[in-house]
Structure formats: structure tokens, C-alpha cells
Amino acid sequence: MRKVLCILALISHVLAQAPTQAERDAILKAHRCVRENVQPTASNMEMMGYSMSLEKLAIDWVQRCLLERPNPNLYPQYRGTGQAISVVVDDNPNLVDIVQGWYEEGKNYVFKNNTCEGICDDYIQMVWAKSTKLGCAVTCCDQTIPPRRKPVHIIACFYRRGAKWPDRKPYKAGPSCSRCPSGYECYRNQCVMNSDPEIAEPCDDDELER
């Protein structure tokens, strides 16, 4: 991974960094592996793809260096999206390692009761069955988030559709792909449109571990 540079313009506007294509591919692969292997198995888990429009929204948000999620009443462009956001103190934040941390939040989630014993919001968003697109960004916020030890980076992925937890469970339990939308096929335990030319790369055995 290339080093993430912290660049501040003269007007103190923080410039966000888009992932490289290799990072986009790795982030997407990690999400698909998590969604493929949920327990209990999902009957309606849809295949996720990467969205440059969501990446642009992520860039727009992280460059504000706000330690919060966007309020759609104040920022209507984010309406209908979900977010996973982390703050990291590191010279070289590894985006896939951040995704691993969100995945590990799943240890706190009890699917049967739809409850969380700790933090699990980011994990819930990762495995939200109807979230079919994501886009991510990172920025350095040393000058705007004191007094943390530097360098401080904010990493965020934005999703569409956004999770509606705790009102609903993230997916419907059941045999994999047994409730896919009409016209969809099953690939790697996920529903995919049969006209989709994209082939999802298989997971490595040690792709994500808790």
C-alpha cells in the first residue's frame, strides 16, 4: 500500500485521498468474503459492487474531519446511504485492516435477538443484505482533531442502501440464495444478476479471521 499523504491547502481545507484501484479491489473482495460467510447463512444476501459515486461522497465527507456520521437533514446528498467510519493513528493506514476491524465487530452481534453487546454498527452495515454498492476514502486530520497523537486518519466507506438497524435484522436467515430476487443467480452464497459480467474472485482460506 502506498503511503497516505497528509496535505492541507492554504485555506486549511483537508484533501481526502481516494483508494488505489488495487485497494478498491481488496476492500470489495473483503466485503464479499464477509457476506459470503455470515452465520447463520443468508437467504437474501446480494452481491456487492464498488461505486465511484459513493467514493466521491466518502471523499467529500472525510475531508470535513468530523467524528460523526452525516445527518441527512443537513446533508441531503447522503440520504439513503450508510457508513462505516474509523479513526486511526498510523503513518500508513491499511484499508483492508480497517475492514477487518469492522468485521471483528460481528463478535458483539447476536443475530437471533438482533442485539449488540458492544459496538457492531460497522459490521451490521457490511452484511446488510440490500447494500449492493460501496465506496471508500481516507484523509489525514492532524490539524483538525487535536489532541490525539499524530498522524490521525479518518477512513470511511459509504454504502447504498444504508442499514436500518435495529429496526430490522441485516439479512434473512435461511439456505443461501433461497430468497434471491427474480432473475438473480447464486454465486458464492450471494444473489447476483445473471447479466452481471463481473466474476467475483474467490476468498482465500485466511481472508478474514476473528
UniProtKB/TrEMBL annotation:
Signal peptide range in chain numbering: 1-16
Keywords: Signal
Presence of keyword GTP-binding: no
Domain (SCP): residue spans on this chain: 22-167
Signal is among the record's keywords: yes
Chain ranges passing through the membrane: none
SMART domains: SCP
PANTHER family: CYSTEINE-RICH SECRETORY PROTEIN-RELATED (PTHR10334)
Protein name: SCP domain-containing protein
Native source species: Mesocestoides corti
Classification of source organism: Eukaryota, Metazoa, Spiralia, Lophotrochozoa, Platyhelminthes
